[in-house]
Amino acid sequence: MWWILLGCATEMMNSPFIMAQERQGLAASAQDYWVFVRWGEANRAGRYLESPLHRSALAGFVAEPPWRFSNVEILQTDVGTVLDKELRPRTREGTVMVRIEYYNERIGNVEKTTFEQAWVKEYGRWVVDGTVPWGPGQLW
Description:
By secondary structure, this protein is α+β, with helices and mostly antiparallel strands.
């Protein structure tokens, strides 16, 4: 009988209403993260990074930025269904489509790039997925 209730609870967590709330929560977390990164607030942005290597890379970028942000925009968020209990504390995975505009002060050209960033929900909060490696000078 308990497995019927468990199935109902899982279905409720994947309902359109809950999924919309999860997308909204992910969008808010991603927006906060990128605002902090844009303005060089590594300590505050670091709250959204589960990997110590990512936090270190971000701190290095903020200390000596190779380029500066002129704009950051969250274009789209998407969340997956509830993950199996074996993967706990991770409960969901999500992706964020981000567009950044940046420039090198010496050159002066503004460049744009759009990319997808992986996020996970752990312990009830959204963080950048620490299992996805960053390349040199990369913040995603």
